[in-house]
Amino acid sequence: MTGAKMDELMIVAISRAAQLAYVEEAHAAFAYLSAADRFFRYHASTDKTATLGEELERLGDFAVIDGSFSIHLASGPVGPSGSGSLFIKRLSLIDAALRLSSGTGEGPILVEPNVGGAACVLSRGGKRLPVPKA
Amino acid sequence: MASVLIVDDEELSRIAVRKLLSRLFPDTLVAGEAENGRVAVALALSLRPDIVLMDIRIPAMNGIDAAVAILDALPSTRIVVVSAYDSFGFAQRAINIGVSGYLLKPVSEADFAAVFGKALAEVQARIGVAQEQAVAPGPTAPAGKRDAIERAIASLSLRELGLERLADVLDMNPQHLSRLFKELFGIRFVEYSTGLRIDAAKAALTDQDITVEELCRRLGWTDSAHFTKVFKERTGLTPKAYARQIGGNGP
Known about the structure:
The structure holds two protein chains of two kinds. Chain A is of the alpha+beta class. Chain A folds into two domains: 46 residues; 87 residues, no CATH class. In chain A, 48% of the residues lie in helices and 20% in strands. In chain A, the strands form two sheets. In chain A, strands 2-4-5-6 form a four-stranded mixed beta sheet, with helices on one face. In chain A, helix 2 packs across helix 3 and helix 3 runs parallel beside helix 4. The N and C termini of chain A lie far apart (32 Å). The longest helix of chain B is centred in the middle third of the chain and has 27 residues. Chain B has twelve helices and five strands. Chain B has two domains: 120 residues, Response regulator (Rossmann fold), CATH 3.40.50; 116 residues, Homeodomain-like (Arc Repressor Mutant, subunit A, Orthogonal Bundle). At the A-B interface, helix 1 and helix 2 of A face helix 1 of B.
């Protein structure tokens, strides 16, 4: 089975599992599976870029799926009218968060949008990782 | 009460949509369900639903083509796409044919409330205009009255369609509506509504594994023996024989 077919199967399976959770009124399971559905769709996309706002939403979904770290957004609007409309390389924010989530202290990962020349900067336990604009 | 047709080849998805409707829009009525595009078009033409919740990847005819056929025949019907596929191509085609909204499975209650609620508001506004036209004081052109009655009929499911219910929607006296109907349509209301129900029954029998009892329940026909008799009078065949003749899996 090709990677694309496997991605499609995974998305369909998660989507159906989420619908089943809804039908059975398992609300926490529905929320979890919906986050997984959104994240896997995003991950499977062939687009090279994303907006910062979009990537932050998916980072939130990833944090729900992973369960080992949380996110704290520093300040500022991250909607379409704010710094959320900045373009970044798809998954670059999530990759940066993954690097910080393993062995760099406790507490949430701080996300500061539009700092200096970067689309945003992630920090945790004294370590800072800038995510460049696309 | 707005009527809804659910089109999806997966039973789980149809159950989930029914649950969303019952939780968020309990005043809507599920007039029918279809598992493929061809049946969806046939059912839409006979049931004349206000809103169609349409999956895209379905057998026989895809959801986009089915939506085009439905909108061609019933331009006031609202179509909301409910799909597991978020491809830009699908979404673009859906927008271009004039669907009212696009929902991605699994559908959250918040998204369903926003998108379906918008389509429902449009339907309710249309029904309100139909009622105003029907009861407008002073001389009203017969064509306008006939159109208002047809639109009011379209706003009802076959299960609830009856003279008193129609009069209620139009805010008219049932006896007055009965006389006006005969004058405008040339036949009695009961003959007209029976014709709609028989057409819907024929459409359902073409492709659905459905019993006569279930068919009667969907059509609002309380006596299945009477239904079989009327069906035979109109088509020359019993429902079972009709289903056999057209090659379906009917009762």
